[in-house]
């Protein structure tokens, strides 16, 4: 399969503290990859580097055949091809839900407002929020805000979805509704790289699991192998805390 997104030997430090230590991974079209690891292992930093929200110290990032780590690239246009959803929603509170969803299409992609809003309403219907298009985010529950953030990420028809612990800020009863939507997106053929602590979801939905430990890819493989017969002692140690 052709790699849609590829990281080659990424290094990233904050001050004297290295956070990513030569991370390499690739994501094929229609593939769902779950990124797992302890808090502080570098998962969020990796996603922020892939989305050009953080610069890298060394290595290369390719989106298709384009080197997007080249400082000359148009970062906003690249980000419109990488739909990103964070754990904290990051919806603009002063805009309606529909305006949040359509903003990148109108500003970055220069889509006419009528066309952007037509697509935005269709996406809100898809995530079960059609009736809330005119509301502001503070009128939505956490789960609804996260579904709106997913709709916003899908609005520019991105090549890849980058999902960063999108259920960690939700009440337990709201986790299922958001994961159910991600499961549907995966079944529909979306290409997804998802940092998550939801091990059962990663086991059931991901095509491949990548275990990040202290800024390194320590193990990767199909869910059955990583969860059922991990090769590395550190992987086994990490996974024991999620087993009943």
Automatic annotation (TrEMBL):
Subcellular location: Cell membrane
Residues annotated as signal peptide: none
Origin species: Microbacterium schleiferi
Keyword annotations: Amino-acid transport, ATP-binding, Cell membrane, Membrane, Nucleotide-binding, Transport
UniProt keyword Nucleotide-binding present: yes
Pfam families: ABC_tran (PF00005)
GO cellular component: plasma membrane
The name this protein goes by in its record: Amino acid ABC transporter ATP-binding protein
Domain ABC transporter: 5-239
Entry similarity comment: Belongs to the ABC transporter superfamily.
InterPro entries, sorted: AAA+_ATPase, ABC_ATPase_HisP-typ, ABC_transporter-like_ATP-bd, ABC_transporter-like_CS, MetN_ABC_transporter-like, P-loop_NTPase
PANTHER family, per the entry: AMINO ACID IMPORT ATP-BINDING PROTEIN, GLUTAMATE_ASPARTATE IMPORT ATP-BINDING PROTEIN GLTL
């Amino acid at each position: 399969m052709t790699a849609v997104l590829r990281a080659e030997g990424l290094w990233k430090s904050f001050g004297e503290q290295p956070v990513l230590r030569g991370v390499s991974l690739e994501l094929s079209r229609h593939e769902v990859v779950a990124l797992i690891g302890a808090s502080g292992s570098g998962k969020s930093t990796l996603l922020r580097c892939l989305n050009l929200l953080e610069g890298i110290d060394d290595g290369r990032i390719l989106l298709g055949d384009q080197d997007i780590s080249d400082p000359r690239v148009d970062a906003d246009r690249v980000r419109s091809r990488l739909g990103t959803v964070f754990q904290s929603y990051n919806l603009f509170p002063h805009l309606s839900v529909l305006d949040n969803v359509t903003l990148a299409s109108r500003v970055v992609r220069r889509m006419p407002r009528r066309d952007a809003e037509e697509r935005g309403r269709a996406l809100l219907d898809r995530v079960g929020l059609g009736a809330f298009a005119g509301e502001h985010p503070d009128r939505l529950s956490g789960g609804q805000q996260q579904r709106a953030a997913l709709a916003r990420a899908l609005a520019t028809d991105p090549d890849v979805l980058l999902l960063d612990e999108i259920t960690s800020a939700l009440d337990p009863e709201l986790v299922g509704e958001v994961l159910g939507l991600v499961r549907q997106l995966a079944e529909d053929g979306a290409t997804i790289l998802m940092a998550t602590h939801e091990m059962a979801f990663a086991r059931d939905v991901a095509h491949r699991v990548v275990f990040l430990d202290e800024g390194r890819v320590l193990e990767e493989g199909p869910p059955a192998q990583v969860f059922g017969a991990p090769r590395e002692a550190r992987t086994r140690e990490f996974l024991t805390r999620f087993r009943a």
